[in-house]
Write a structure and sequence with these properties.
This is DUF4460 domain-containing protein. This protein is α/β, with parallel strands linked by helices. The chain is built from 18 helices and 7 strands.
Amino acid sequence: MFQSHSRLCRGNGGRYFCRLVLQNRQQQQQQRLNVARSETSRFCSPVLHTQPYSLLLGLQKADALSHSISLLSCRSDGARRLTSSSSSPSMKNTVNLKRWIQPFVLKCHPDMAEQQGLPKTGQKVNLKAVQSLNSYIDGVQQYLKTNKYPFSSDSVVEIEFVMAFTRGNSSAAVPSTTSSATNSTSATISSGQPITTSRRKVELSVPPPSFTAQQTIRHVRQQIVKLLKIASLTVPNSLAAAIEDDKYDATVPQDHLLHDQQRQRPLTPWEASRQRFWQRVEWKKFDAAYQAALQDAQAHLLTRNKIRNTPVLRQRLLAKILSNISFSEHVIPLERLVAYRRLLRLLDENFDALHLEDFGTFWEDQMTLVVTEARPYNTSSSAMRKRRQRHLETGYSFTIHHNNLVTVSIPIDFTDSELMQELARNIIDFVEWTTSASDDNDILMGNNQEGIFQ
């Protein structure tokens, strides 16, 4: 039928085809209605037989009701899955907690005691510590799987162990004061190298029975981290990342956590790292630094080029810089006068290139120019270029003193291009150092009243 009317459909804009489709649907509905009449006439009353449309409507409502019930059941199942962690700590895929205690087990294993030079008493203590730790982890994993609490309420598991350190190890010299008892003795390895043995005891608290599965795992993570740190061992990267995630979850509201549980896929490594990054940001310090930078930028824009464009301020700055010039005793007065005029013209013409306004404090208060006698060798451009290639004396020197003041020595027979090259090559490093040293000194002395460290 569709092929026979394809031309008509294209010619009349598809109207005839749509009409045929509607007629076909009406015929199918009529056939279904007749089947419903024939089926209900056997079992139903005459009233239902005379009202087939109401019967069909009732069947449709029944189907819709059953569909709604199925949806509600699916939603309730999903809700039970989402809230199962709040009602029961059982989990199908239990986290493998033993992989996080591997550093401690490897360190305290009896087979490693001989290599560490531990006595037999230390071997027995470490063996008991490994057994107690394994029983603690096994009990937690059994609780997560079967929902049967294996511990007594408000109980702790004592892990007592003996660790061997070399005398130069700083970690052994710092005893723990939280929940460990330390008794240090001396021993000797078979090779004769002296070591220090530290006997420590850590009390691991068991998770309360009221904890959910996630809360139980977080509690055990914290206990394992405490044990590893008391034992001066490195925390695995996976455990450290899990602790960071726990810190993030502790600061997120519960509605956000429920939204995270409803996600159909786990977080990608990039998303997880981004969440940890936002958690590590110190927003108060960031806001303070942002406001300080904004105010500094506004002040800079308002006063930019003010000294350069104001003749009085410009002459005052140049006069202050020239007042810091000193001469060696071998420079005669006439040469001094010529040097003054040359330096004044050089600074005035290169006002922007030398950043006299931006580094005004440095030029005025922290730098001194010392003009020395003329150089006794050939000072032509080619000769000076060869001297620089051979790393010979050029007559210029930059000195920073203990009080962060800078002295620049230049010869009396300097050239403008030569002096500009030396200043451009060296002055920026001295400016950066003196500025940072001044800021650090203000912070240490408590003079930074409006900084971000308040």
